[in-house]
Amino acid sequence: MQNLRKKFPVLNQCIYANTAATGLMSEDLMEWRQGHDLDYLIGGSEIKMKNFEEMPQIRKTIGNFFYCNADNVALVPNFSMGLNILLEGLDKNQRVLLLKGDYPSLNWPFESRNFTREYVEIDEQLEERIYDKVSGEQFDVLALSLVQWINGLKIDLEFLKKLKKDFPDLMIITDGTQFCGTEQFNFETSGIDVLGTSAYKWLLAGFGNGFFLVKDEVKERFNQKFTGYGSVAGDLSKKDNIHFCGHLQPGHLDSLNFGSLRFALDFLDEIGMEHIEAHLKRLSKKATEEFSSLGLLENDVIRRKHHSTIFNVRGDKAFYKRLRENEVVCSPRGGGIRLSFHFYNTEDEIKAIANIIRGQ
Q: H/E element holding 339?
């Protein structure tokens, strides 16, 4: 991974521990984007039409990366937009189970539509709490982030698979924005029915692109209402026969942004998600050891068997200021300081942050 750091110049200026806020742009992606816009500058509409024709291939690239039929991939500008469009087609009589304090763009769309809701606390016993709630009451939908945005707590994917097996009528909708790009993931064999994500964080694709993956079994539970020229890819004869994912992409899609997404996925694929996953596990272990030894982590995080590479350490404004003065890029979140590490980070950087905290 050390050689890959050269592709991210900002790493020469700081310890970048802020991918949970914004993933970095590589020099390779910047060059591709410059080439894309130069072609547009010179070629005008002919180039743009050619780029629009690439959208099916982009959906196929996403499908191959996450093991999902390309017909079940919808391109959206971001997770928030996609979920709001999706929920407009969901019967408002559905009973929904959410996590208390989950990401606003996940919880708020359900709350603003007045679905009947219950909540589960996010703590060490998260999976047990969800299972007890689902087995004790009737729920139609479970919606949650795969990795929590504030403290990085990660849901057990095997648990979701078991939950779906035990309660097959429960539709599981997930936000993968803090998850996708951190490990190998097979959507088809997972217990998840709908996964949506923005791609500007761990997928390193820049802003303005994301996608939703949907399983065939749950499509009939939605009565989709959003339509437009993009829903039929310009073929007006298909107005009365729009496929499910077409409703999620009713307008023109930006070839720069979605081309960036394909480029980023190819880049991650070239590195090898198995190598990225292994490296992130080492970083997570190192960060857990360093920050827990300083008494900066919640017990709910320390006691979990597996954790992401997002950590919320105890600290006030002065603490945050000291990190920033020492060129550590991070974010105040949830009353603490959120530190997050991707494959371009190193164990030495984590140790350096720990030493800054110690005052060394």
A: strand 336-340
Q: Which amino acid is at 272?
A: G
Task: Give the Cα separation of 94 and 138 in Å (integer).
Answer: 10
**Cβ neighbours of residue 198 under 8 Å, at least 6 residues apart?**
78, 79, 80, 177, 209, 210
Residue ranges per structural domain of the chain? 2-25+272-358, 30-270
Contact (Cβ atoms closer than 8 angstroms) between residue 96 and residue 117: yes
CATH of domain 30-270: 3.40.640.10
DSSP 8-state secondary structure symbol assigned to residue 222: B
**Contacts of residue 228, Cβ cutoff 8 Å, sequence gap at least 6:** 250, 251
Give every CB contact of residue 353 below 8 A, 6+ residues apart in sequence: 15, 17, 290, 323, 328, 339
* C-alpha R_g of the chain: 21
- Superfamily (CATH) of domain 2-25+272-358: Aspartate Aminotransferase, domain 1 (3.90.1150.10)
Token pair 């709910």 is found at 300
Q: What is the pLDDT of residues 172-181, one digit of tens each?
A: 999 999 999 9
pTM (predicted TM-score): 0.96
- Stretch (H or E) spanning 76: strand 73-76
| Rounded-to-integer distance, Cα 1 and Cα 232, Å | 42
For 311-344, the pLDDT digits (tens) are 999 999 999 999 999 999 999 999 999 999 999 9
Residue 306: how many CB atoms within 10 A of its CB?
A: 12
- In terms of C-beta density within 10 A (0-12 exposed, 13-18 middle, 19 or more buried), how is residue 158 classed? exposed
What is the rounded distance in angstroms from the CA atom of residue 145 to the CA atom of residue 174?
5
Assess contact for 66 and 224: CB atoms under 8 A.
Answer: no
At 351, the pLDDT band (50, 70, 90 cuts) reads: very high
Q: Is the dihedral of CA 195, 198, 202, 206 positive or negative?
A: positive
